[in-house]
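hey so i finally got around to running the thing on that chain from the lab meeting. sorry it took forever, my laptop kept dying and i had to restart like 3 times. anyway pasting the input first so we r on the same page abt which one it is
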Amino acid sequence: MNFKRVYTSTKTYFVLSFLALVLLVFTSTMAYKQIVVMQKSAEMVSHSLHVYNGISLLTAHYTEADSEEFRDALLKSDKSENVFKAYREEGRVIMDSLMHLLEDDPSQIKRLQSVKGLLGDLYNQLQDLDNTDLETDDTLLQYRDAQKSVISITLYQIRSLKGDILREEQRLMHLRQETYESDKSLAPLLLLLLAFLALLVFILSFLRMYRNKLRIRESENFLRNVLGTTDNVVNYYEPIFNEDNDIVDFIIVYANACNRDYFGLDPDDMLGKTVLEVFPFLEGHDAFSKFLECYNTQEKVKFEIEMTMNGSHMWFESLVTTLSNGILVTSRNITAQERAKNTQLKLKKRLENQNLKLLDNRALLANIFKSISHIVMHFKSIRNANNEIIDFQVLFVNDRINPVTGDIPEEIKNRNVSDVFPEIFKTGVFEHLVNAIDNNKTVKYDVPYEKEGKTHWFSATAIKLGDGVTVTIRETTDEKEKSDQLLQLNEQLVIRNSILNDAESISKIGSFLWYKDSDTSELSDNFYRILGFSPNEFVSSSKKYRDFIHPEDLPIYDMRLKESISGLTSDEFTYRIITNKGKIKYLKTNGQFLDKDGQTVMIGVVQDVTQTIRAAEELRKSNAELQQSNAELESFNRVASHDLQEPLRKIQLFISRIEDMEGETFSEKGSNYFVKVKNAAERMQNLIQNLLAYSRIDSSKTDLERVDLNDVLLKVQEDLANTIKDTEAEIVLDKLPDIHGVFFQMEQLFANLLANALKYRSKTSLPKIEIQSSKVSNAELPTDFRTTSQEYYKIIVSDNGIGFDEKHTEKIFEVFQRLHQKTEYTGTGIGLAICKKIVENHNGYIYAKGTLGAGAQFIIFLPA
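ok and heres what got predicted. didnt touch it at all, straight out
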């Protein structure tokens, strides 16, 4: 195939030739223009010379009028009139010539007009002089001399104007000479430059055409290489026409090597043959009609064809385009693609089956979510402009949320977590969820939840999913309680191990290791000392150890040992031994069986509890004495509540009657004594009642119930309503919590605190009492206070009263302790002691802060 004929384009050559022709025309035009410019410059110089001649003639013309010879010829000649006419005609001709030469210069024309007027005056003056020349009269002679003077003045004016005209022409002549010289020197350079430029364009055009020829050769070679190495079948066909000028076939002009690879046809053998001869299956095939369609419409045609050649079944995607006098057919082997498509159809069908299974699995998963006891939620992150997580959106939650929080899943979906569960921002849960997403790790955490006055514990697992987090929550309240118990047991075990390892010699504790199968034992050093021996002084075994057992305790020891061996269990029990030195000691032993290296081994601890048992005996005696004291206290309570109050009530009754009957007859001194007696009786009654209240505060806490402190404060304010009204006190209350406690004790606690604040009010301002409440962790309580809860309610009762010095902080809570004289403020000194006992009875803590003259604060911590 002749690629040069097919692919060579002459467009570039036409463009270059056209540019060269344009440049040649441009060069000729510029040369012609330069010649024209030089001609104009020469004409302007010639014009200036003509003007100079005209000015010279004008100078000679008016200068002649100034000469004596001309005047004599004009005045003395008989033909003076003809001479004057000729002279005047000469001047007109000169002026017309100058006017014609200077008609393109308005300034010069204006000067010539002035000269023309002066010449007219000169002619008139000469004519007047000619008329007076024949007279000899003296007067006329004087007039003639004067007339000559006038002529001289006129000539002077003409000379001046002529000088201006001449100077202007000299200036123009100088400019025109410079222009002519410039044009004269520029013309050869310009012509040479244009000629050089034209030559350069022709050279560049030649180089361009030569390069294009080289590129065409390179492109031809490149195209041959591409067609030889491409994976596509590329054939070029030219049509074969019949007598009716219809295409009956195509002759193969070019075929690349892919024909050999795919069809087993040699490209060289194909050249010159017809398409139907080489590919007979195309006769009547739709592909052949596509060839005809492309050639006839001169548009691209794309189609797919399936064929079988040399036993191979193949698919091709063909693109037919017109090229020169024929068509170019490019066929891409898509056999692998078709096979992949068939495979994809099979995979699609399999995927559809899997999708059906997935739907079943989804339904199964939905049923699982409904049936499991775990709460499952999925949150989507909500981020701010800095890409920081500020909230979450609830995307999914199963039905198990309802029994816990009362929420309905469909109602909380697509809502923000800050609206549905705002408490997560206070409990640290939000930080756990953010940590799971930012660090892409599974985060496990525990979270408490208050429900119906009870703290429920939940264990949660947060796992990142996309830009969100899936949270699985299960209730672990029972596990938490068991874990706390186990923790306490572990703490005890740690303590025992620490004692065993670090202080056996000083704590009277020993340890042992007994191998059941071989009946050998290993005793600790202190165990030997407890038995009265030095360490490792004898070889121990169960038979050897039995010799130390007190004869009276031997039967129970043998029974316990037999039970332990048969059941592989060991219970703690106490027995007596007789040491090597004959002393009787009480030992408490405990152990457990385990498997060690395939042997049954008991590990145990013994403790010398001789002093403990003896101390227990002493304690039993002390308890008996305490019970006697309690009985006496009970008796005192009965006496205080009945026997003491009965005569006191009678004393108060008689005091009241005496005051009613004899009060007006008392002297002033007697009246004062009577008031003191009355006050002393009232104080005695208050003291007895407060002592009874203090002694009746029960620490057994068997009657604890859910107490709303808001109801307690409402009841206290009703009881103190008159005092509050009389003192015009202001009471500011926070929303108070519910606690587990005894209602009347809480009422007594706050009644005492409010009564104290009202009693010890400032004398300069109205009393103001504030009660604030918040939930805090147990870390805020004093370290020496043994906490029983993770969280506490902190209640602060503040007043603006007289306050107190903080060095008396502990003293004010003691019984009968007062900071003021009874003459200043009434009271028994038991009220705050009662408050402290009530708070401690509720496993709480109370302390006070104050400043003299600036009020006091009572801070109460109660378990949440």
